[in-house]
Write a structure and sequence with these properties.
Elements: H1 3-16, E1 29-34, E2 37-43, H2 52-58, E3 72-77, H3 89-95, E4 100-105, H4 115-122, E5 126-128, H5 133-139, H6 141-149, E6 153-161, E7 165-167, H7 180-192, E8 195-198, H8 200-206, E9 221-225, E10 244-248, E11 253-255, E12 258-262, H9 269-279, E13 284-287, H10 291-299, E14 305-311, E15 320-321, E16 329-335, E17 341-347
Parallel strand pairs: 3-4, 4-5, 6-13, 6-14, 8-9, 8-13, 9-10, 10-12
Antiparallel strand pairs: 1-2, 1-3, 7-15, 11-12, 14-17, 16-17
Helix pairs in contact: 3-4
The structure holds ligand AOF and zinc ion.
Ligand AOF binds at residues 25-26, 28, 44, 51-53, 77, 79-80, 84-86, 89, 107, 109, 112.
């Protein structure tokens, strides 16, 4: 392994420690190296808090501080150039006279986007970019999708029978497709995304809570479509236990944990939703049904991942058909040890939408 890649890998390890704490910001890690010895390490720990570079420089011990101006900084994302919640990291690096910076990948955020690298170079600092770039991009896939495509990273999720149905014809009749093992997995997935979306029928018939109760970490913001505001107030989704957005055609109003967000239902619903979610700074969404809403995302060609829980021995002969993916690539299959249930993970062929 090359030296630069070794230290960048350490940056990525550190960055991951911020998982679940920093969204909608990216996870970022930084190390400061003097003569092959790490003298400082830091990562972005909390949304609104100091950036990785700040924590890295602050971590240098008193006896090593005179070495800062003769060290190389490795950082998994381009240092920022803007005054946000904190001053620019590029200025901090210049202030400490760090002579060389190695960057994992460029920051696509409009206020940065190359300006950080430029600022460093103009100050005479040697900058190398693109070290372990693919891994650094993968690390913050949601953040990059959000800023380059101006929409959230979209994950479609459903459970289906062996013969391709997601519910019985009579939707109020329960159909047990998944088991406790896959339920835990679904809660883990919920803990990893900023938002969770369902359509009106799913909210009404399934009355889901959409919270993460079976895994550690936070619950996503709940998102529900309710054009005419007809969903009964007694639903779990409207219990105020978790931040919830009700997309509707009637009113724009904030009530404590409940935001009524007005959109036009006459135009393409997926596009309307994406614009609203971008405005709300929700960088990733897991869509949990129903079939019609999932299919709208597929038909619009706007999805990044699909996760399909399949009960391979349950045949029901007739029912509500599962969504149909188009040109998907299978990337992973998780076989569950019991009940012949497997989870199929696909990525979208669409890299431009
Ligand atoms: C860095 N190092 O560790 C992170 C960066 O609102 P603020 O001030 O926290 O700025 C957020 C933006 O800063 C975020 O959108 C991204 O472009 C960049 N994040 N930059 O130099 C870091 N987390
Ligand atoms: Zn910064």
């Amino acid at each position: 392994m090359q030296v630069a890649e070794y230290y960048m890998e350490r940056c990525i390890q550190l960055a991951r420690l911020g998982a679940g704490m920093v969204a909608p910001n990216p996870m970022v890690g930084a190390v400061l190296v003097h003569n092959d010895r790490i003298i400082g390490e830091g990562w972005h720990r909390q949304y609104g808090g100091p950036h990785a570079e700040v924590n890295c420089i602050a971590s240098v011990q008193e006896e090593d501080r005179h070495l800062i101006s003769a060290s190389v900084m490795y950082v998994s994302l381009e240092p920022c150039a803007h005054f946000g919640k904190t001053p620019p990291c590029a200025d901090l690096i210049i202030h400490h006279r760090i002579p060389e910076v190695v960057v994992g990948c460029r920051d696509p955020f409009d206020a940065v986007n190359g300006k950080g690298i430029e600022k460093l170079q103009q100050a005479g600092i040697k900058v190398t970019t693109g070290v372990l770039e693919t891994v650094c991009l993968q690390l913050n896939e949601r953040f990059f999708t959000f800023h380059t495509k101006k929409r959230p990273f979209i994950i479609l999720k459903w459970a289906q029978t062996a013969d391709g149905f997601i519910a019985r014809e009579n939707k109020s009749e329960r159909l047990l497709i998944s088991n406790s093992e896959t339920n835990t997995l679904v809660h883990k997935w919920r803990s990893e995304e900023a938002g969770i979306l369902v359509g009106t029928h799913t909210a009404l018939y399934d009355n889901p809570s959409l919270t993460n109760r079976l895994w550690t970490g936070p619950s996503p913001v709940r998102l529900v479509l309710d054009r005419e505001l007809k969903l009964p107030a007694g639903l779990h989704l409207l219990d105020g236990q978790q931040a919830t957005v009700v997309f509707n055609a009637q009113k724009q109003e904030q009530q404590e944990n409940l935001l009524y967000y007005k959109i036009s239902f006459d135009e393409k619903i997926v596009e309307q939703l994406l614009t609203a979610l971008y405005e709300l700074k929700i960088i990733s969404v897991i869509v949990e049904g129903g079939s019609q809403l999932l299919q709208s995302f597929i038909d619009a060609g706007i999805w990044d991942e699909a996760r399909v829980i399949t009960n391979t021995t349950l045949f029901i002969g007739n029912g509500l058909a599962a969504p149909q993916l188009q040109n998907q690539s299978l990337v992973n299959t998780i076989l569950s040890g019991t009940d012949s249930i497997s989870t199929w993970q696909y990525t979208s062929p669409n890299i431009t939408a």
